[in-house]
Design brief:
With 160 residues, the chain is mainly alpha-helical. It has one domain: Rossmann fold. It is built from eight helices and four strands. The radius of gyration is 17 Å and the shape is globular.
Length: 160
């Protein structure tokens, strides 16, 4: 039996879920200890999966699908500020404070656990690796966080 695993990194598209609120408040809180994250767009993931399926390669493989760089939250905040002209400052907080904030925002316990878990894993360095897999599979470089934010500037400004 052949198989292929496609391990997606953290989705760049998630920036649209939480950074607009950071633009409104002027602060983006994470419990990442400002460690890097290898964001990847869902579009890049879809292209990589399609390329893997079309390749005909039937060997057992694990593909690490992530972006071309791993910016820190402070770097992402600076990018958002530069693109939108609004300064969401990054604040690194303890994970318990993050959980309380997410609970206070009305998020369900499962989502609170998942989101705080991503931050814990980031703080431990699990999302800082960068691989060339997207480009190797598709022949094109994955989307930079900056390019994603520029392409979605209107969505950030409308919400922020």
């Amino acid at each position: 039996m052949s198989w292929t695993f496609m391990r997606h990194g953290l989705y760049t598209d998630g920036q649209l879920w939480f950074l607009p609120q950071a633009l409104k408040s002027g602060s983006w809180a994470t419990a990442t200890r400002n460690k890097p994250r290898h964001y990847v767009t869902r579009d890049d993931c879809a292209h990589a999966v399609a390329a893997a399926l079309a390749s005909g390669d039937t060997t057992q493989r694990i593909h690490e699908i992530n972006g071309p760089a791993a910016p820190t939250p402070e770097e992402v905040a600076a990018i958002v500020s530069g693109v939108t002209g609004k300064p969401p400052a990054h604040a690194d907080i303890p994970v318990d404070a993050l959980r309380k904030g997410l609970e206070g925002a009305g998020l369900p316990p499962t989502l609170v656990g998942a989101m705080s878990g991503f931050d814990i894993a980031t703080a431990l360095g699990f999302y800082g690796t960068v691989t060339p897999t997207v480009e190797e599979l598709t022949g094109r470089a994955p989307t930079l966080v900056r390019d994603f934010i520029i392409a979605n500037k209107a969505a950030f400004l409308a919400a922020g």
